[in-house]
User: What shape does this take?
Amino acid sequence: MRNIATLLLLGGLSFLLLVITGGLLFGNPPMLIGQGIQQAAPTEVGAANIVTAVVLGYRGLDTLGELSILFAAATAGGLVLGSTRGRSGRPGGFILRTGVDLLFPLMLVAGLYVVMHGHLTPGGGFQGGVILAAAFFLPLLARPQESLDHTWLSVIEALAGSAFIALGLAALFEGRAFLTPLFDHGVLGALVSSGSLPLLYLAVGLKVGAELASLLVRLSADDEGAS
Amino acid sequence: MIGALDMLLLAALAAIPLSALFATTRSGRWLLVAAYAVQFGLLIMLQPATAAHSALSFQLLGNAVGWQMDALGWYFAVITIGSAGFAAAYAAGEWSEVNGRLGLSLRWLYAGLQINVLAMLLLLASGDFVSLFIGWELTSWAGLILMLLAGGDAIRASLRYIVYAIAGGMTVFAGLVITQAAVGSLQFDALHAAAPSLGTGRLWAIALLFILGFSVKMASMPFHLWQAPAYAYSPAPGSSFLGSISARMGLFGIALVAIKLIGLAQLDRLSLVTDLVDLRGLLTWVAVFTAILPTFVAMRQNDARLLLGWHGVGQGGYMLLGVIIADRLGSAGGLLHVFNHATYQAILLMAVFAVIHRTGTADLNRLGGLVTRMPLTFLAMLIGIIGLAGLPPMNGFVSKWMIYRALIVDGHPLLFVATVISTLGTVLSVYKLLHNTFLGQLRLEHEQIHEAPWSMTVPMLLLCVVVFVTGAAPGLVLQYVAAAQQAIGLEPVRYILGGIESPTGSLDMLWITAILFAGFGIGAVLFYLIGGRSRRVHQLDNYAGGHFLTADVRYQYSDNFYAGLMHRIRPWYRGSFEWTESALVSALGAASTLARGFFEQANPAQWVLVGTTVIMTWVMWYALG
Amino acid sequence: MNWAIGLVMFVGAVGLSVIGIAGMLMSNHLFRMVLALAVAEAGANLLLILAGYRWDAAAPILLPGHSTQAMVDPVPQAMVLTAIVIGVGVQALALSLVIRVRQHYATLDMRVARQRMQDALDQAAGVVPPRSQEGPAGERPLPAPTRTIEAGGPHD
Amino acid sequence: MTDVTLAVVLPLLGAFLLPLTAHRGLHWLGMLLGPALLALAALLLFATWTAFESPYAIALGGFAPPLGITFYVDLLGLLFALAVPLTSLLLWPGGSDEAAIRQQSLTLLLAAALTGMALSGDLFNLYVFYELAAVASYGLAASSATGPAFVAAFRFLLISALGSVVTLLGIALIYFKTGTLNLAHLATLSERLADPQGLAAFAMLLIGFGVKAELFPVNAWVPEVYAATGKRVAALLAGLASKLAVLAVVRILLLVFPHDEARQLLLLLGTLGVLSGELAAWQARDVTRMLAWSSIGQLGVVLVAFSLPGKAGLIAGVTVAMHHLVVKSALFLLADRWGGAVDRLKGAATASPLGAALFVLFALSLLGLPPLPGFWSKYLVLSGLAEAGSGMQHLALGVILLGTVIEGGYLLRIITRLYAAPERDIVPPAHRFPNLFASGLLALLLVAGAILIDPLWQGLNTLAASATDTQVYVQTVLGGKGITR
Assistant: This one.
C-alpha cells in the first residue's frame, strides 16, 4: 500500500520535473558569468584550466567550504566510530601484496601529478587527492594488521587545511580580500604559473588525500573492534 | 510630576516584596493589611471625576502607551482593593498560622494577592489597547498564582482555567490587532472616533472578538465551566478575593470596549441577516442563560465552595444583562451589582472557609447544626444569603430591583421571567447552603467546635455592616456608579440616598428598611404583649415518634436535598457543556496523535517526496490557474 | 535531433533523481538507502552540469592557439565538483552511522531500527510507550469528579 | 584587519587545528582555542557592527562581483552573524578528551558555516555553507554516542541529504534560466524567474534549506534528534542553526523571488508548521520532545512572519527569530536535567528554585505574556497579518493564536509539575552550574529586551529598511560602490 502511494507520488514527481525541465533551453545557456569568467580568467588568474580558475579563484570560498565539509565528515566519522579500534584479518596473498607494492609508488606519482597539473589540465587537488588516498589505502588491503598512523594523517589534515587558509589570509594581510590569488600569473600554460593556485591545489590534494584515507581506514576497521 | 495614580501603582508594586517578606509573621500580616489600607487611602485621594493620568507613558513600537483611571476604573478599583484588604485581614490571624503549618506558602499567598491587585489596577487604569492587554494578561496569569497554591484538585482546575484564560486572552489579542489594522492606531480615542465609519464586517469582528475574549473571564455561557472549581479550590483569602472581583474584570472590559469605545449606536448596527437578532439581543440572552443555568448547577453542588462558585458565575449574568441593556437604570443596576456581589460573596466564602477552618470540610452532607457552635458565622452567612438571594433590606435587592425594573420598563417580559426563574433557583440553593451547614442536627464529631477566631469573624461582620448599610442607603454607592456610567458615555442614574428616583417608579430603601424593622418590632412587641415566651432547649433535646433520640442516631439527612424538585428537573442536567468540552479535548488529542504519527514515520524521507510533489503540483496548478 | 538529445539528457537527470528517491523510500535497508542517495545525487549533478552545456563547444581549457574557441560554461563544472565532494563526505558519514547502528541494534532494517530507537528514547525519558492501552489520550483538564465531594454536577 | 571574512575563517582555522592539540600535551591550548577564536569572531563582528555606516560588499578573491563570490555586509546579516559566535560560546561543549575535541571541532565548523550563511551573497556559496552546517550537525547529533543518537542522526542525514538533492535541482534550474549565482545579479534578473519554473526552483530551495529550518513537512527529524542528543547540541540546532537557515531562505525570497506566490508558499508551510508542531507537542509526555515540537511550531511562526511583505514582515520575522533563539536555547539548557517525563518533574522547583523560575520566565515569554519580548514579537507578527488582511493571512492569524492556546496548555503542564509537591520524596536533579549560568545570561538578555524594546524596534526599523531595499543591495554589489576588493 505504502509502496503504491510512493510510486504514484514518484510518477507525479517525475512528470512534474519533466514538465519543468522540458521548458528549459538546453545547449544554449545564458552563461552570464560563464562568459565573463572565460574572458577574464586568463588575465585575472592565469590558469589554463578555467575550471580550476573557477574552483580556486572565483569560487575559492566554495572550495574552502568543501574542504571543511570533508573535514567535518571525517571528524564526525571519527566521533561516531571512535578511533581506538583494532584491526584484524588475514594478510593478502602474494599477488596482492606484490601488486600493491608495485602500484604504491606509481599511484603516488600519478596522484601528485594530477594535483600539480590541476591548473593546466583536467584534474586537480580533489581528483589527485583521491588517488593519493587510494595509494595509501591499498597497503591496508594487503596487510590489514598494519594501521596507518592516525597522528600523521591528522597532522597532514590540519596543516594542509590551515595552509589553504593561510594562503587566503596572506592576501588579507596584504590588504586585499581573502583568498585573492598571490604572486605573478606567469606564462599561461606553464607548470609554474597562475600564481598561488598550484599551492592551493597542493594543499587541497593533501587534505583530501589525508581526509579520505582516514575515512577509509575508519570505515574498514572491524566491527568487533569496539563496543 | 508623580500623580496620585502613580503613587497608587507604586504603592501596590512596593507592597509585593513586602508581602513576600512579612507574610510569615502575624504582626507582619497585619502590616500588610495596613498596606492595603494605605492603597485604599491613595485610591480614595485619587479624584476620579476627571480621568487621572499617570506620569508613566512610553512610546512602544510606534504606539503611545499610558495609564489613566476614569470613574469606571476607579469604581472597580475600590472594590478590588477593598476585597483584597478584607481577604488579607481575614487570613491575617489564626487562619494563616494553621494553614502555614499545614504547608501553605504564606509568602506566595500574600505576594500573589498583592500581584493580583497590582495587575488589576494596571488593567483598570489602562489608557490604550496595549496597556489594556498588558493588564488583561497580567490579571489572567496572576490569578493562576492564587489558584495553584492549594495543590491537588486545584492544579487540575487551574490548568483548565489557564487554557480558557489564554484562549480568552488570544481572542482579545486578535481583536486588538484587527482594531489596529482597521483603525490604524491602538489609542482608545481612535477606535471611538472611527467606529461610526467602520464597515459592519470589521465592526462585527472587533466587537465580537473583544466581547468573546472578555466573556471567557466572566465565565459567560458557554465558557462557564472553568470558573467555579478554579476559584473554589483556592485557599480562603484567594478564593474570597477571586470570587468577589476577579471575574468582573471581564465586565469592565465589555463596559469599556463595547459600551464606551464602540458605543451603543454602533453595537445596534450589528445585526444578523434578518435584523431579527442583533448582537445586543444575543448578548442579553447569553447573560440570562448565564444567570439561570449555573444557578441550577449550583443547587446540585454538595461542596459549599463550589456552590458559591457557581453562584458567582450566575450573578455575573445579571451584571452583564444590566450592562448590555445599557439604559440608565439597567446599567446602573449591573454596575451596582458588581459592588454588592463582591461584598456578600466575600462574606459567604469567608463564612464557608470559617466552617472549613473549624470542621475541616465543606461537604454539605457532613455538616449541620453548627448554629449553636458558630453563631457569628451563622449570622454572617444569613446576611450574605439574604444579599445573594436579592431580598430586602440587603444590598443585593437594590441592584436586582434595578435590573428587573429596567427589563420591565424596556419591554423585555421574557427576559424578566427568566431572571425571576434564576432568582428562584438562587433562593432555593442558598437555603440549602445555610440549612445544611448551620441548621438541623449537629454531628457528634462537631460537638467540640468553637466559633471561628475573631480575626476571621470581624472582617465578615464588618462586611455585613457594609452589606446592610449600602442596602439601606444605596445612594452611598450609586453616586460612584453614576459617575462610572458617565465615564462610559451612558446616562447617569438619578439617585437619592435611599435609592432611585425615576418617573416610572422610585425606590427608597430607607423607607423599606424602616418599614421592615418596624414590622419586626411590632411583631416582637405583639408577641411579648400577648405573653409569648421563648425557651432555650439543648440542640440534642429531640424526640421523634415519642422516643427520645440520642446524639448518635441520625434522624436528619441533608443529602438529596429538594428531592422532588430535583426529580422534576433532573432531565435538564445533561452535562452537554462538559460533554462538549471533553469532546473538544478528545478531538485535540486525536489531532495530536495524527501529528505525532506524521513525525514518527518509519521513513522520514517520505515527507521530502510528498512535500516536493505536492508543492510542485501547487506551483504548476498555480501557473495554470 | 538536438531536442532529442536534450530530452534524453533531461530524462536521464530527472530519472536518476527520481530513481534515487524511489530507492530511498521503497527500501528499508540502511545500506541501500545510502546507495540510493548516491544515485539521486548523481541525477542532481547531471542536471547541474547540463545547465552549462553548449552545442559545439569545447572543454573550458585554454590550449595554446585555440583561445577563441567557444567553450562550455565552466561554472557548473566547478559546482558539480564541489557537489560531488560534498556527496562523498556525506555518504562516508552515513556509512559510519550505518556501521554503528548495526552494532547497536544488530539490524539494517530502518523500521526495526526506528522502533528500537523510539523505545529506547521513551525508556530513557521514563515515558510509557504511547502504544500502551492504558495510555490516556493527552491530558484532560479535569478528570471525572471524585466521589466524596461531587464537583461539577452535571454527571450523575 | 576588521574584515568580517575573518569571522568565518577563524573558526574554520580553529576547527582544522584543534585535533592537533589532542596529541602533544596541548590540552590547555585545546581548551582555550575554540572559545578564544569564537570570542575573537564575536568581537570582530561587534566592531563591524558599531562601525557600521552603510551596507558594503566584499569581493572574495578580489574578483568583480557577478563573477566571484561576494559577502554582503548589512545590519541584517551582521545581526544574525553576531548571534552565531555568541550562542556557540554560550553552548560550548567543553571537555578535553578526544571525543570532546571532535565535538568542539564540529561546533567550530558549524559556527563558521552559519556565519558564512549570514554573510554570503552567492547562491551556491549559501548551499555550500548550508551543507557544511548540515554535516557538522549530523556529527553533533550523533555525538552522544548512544544507539538512539546514531539512528536519529542517520535519519536526519537521510532527510537532509535528500533535501540537498532537491536544492541542487533548484540551483540547476535557476542557473539554467539565468546563468548566474550572485544574489544581486539574480535580483536584477528576477523577472526571468517569475514563471512556474522559477517558482518551482524556489520551492526546491525552500524544501532543501527548510530541512534545517524545521520547515513543514521536512522536519520529521526534529523530535528524535533533539531527544537523542545532548541538550546543548539541541539548543544549538533548534536555537541557532534553524534561524540561519531561515535567513538564507529570506535572503533568497527578498532578492530573487519577490513574487506573491513565493510568499504565499512560505505562509502556507509556516501555518501548517505551527499547527502540526503545536498539536504534536500537546501529547508529548517528555519535556525534550515537547520542546522540540514546540520549536517546530515556533519556527512556523517565524516563517509566517517572514512571509509578510515589506518592512513589517522583516521586522516581525527578525524579532520572532531572535526571541526564539534566546528562549529555546535557554529552555533546552534547562531541559538538560529535566528532559525526562513531565510527571517526573514533581517537586523540581524545591531542588532548583532558580532553574524553575527561569523556566517559568522563558515559558511565559514564549507564550507572549506582556511586557516580555515574546509578546511584542507576537504582536508584530499578528498585526502584520491583520494588516495584510487576506483570507489566508487571517487563517494564519487564527492558527497562531490557537497554537498559543495549545502551547499554554502543555507548558503549564510542566510548570505545575515543577511547583507540585515531590512524589515519594523523589526530587528531580538540580541543574549543572554552567547550564544554569548560561540560561541565566539568556534571561538577563530577555529582560533587557523587554526594557529596551522600543530602541530595539527603532534599530530594527533601520535594519529592515535597508534589508528590504533590493536596489540598495544591487547597487552595492553590482554598482561598484562600497566594494572592498
Q: What stands out?
A: Chain D is about 75% helix and 0% strand.
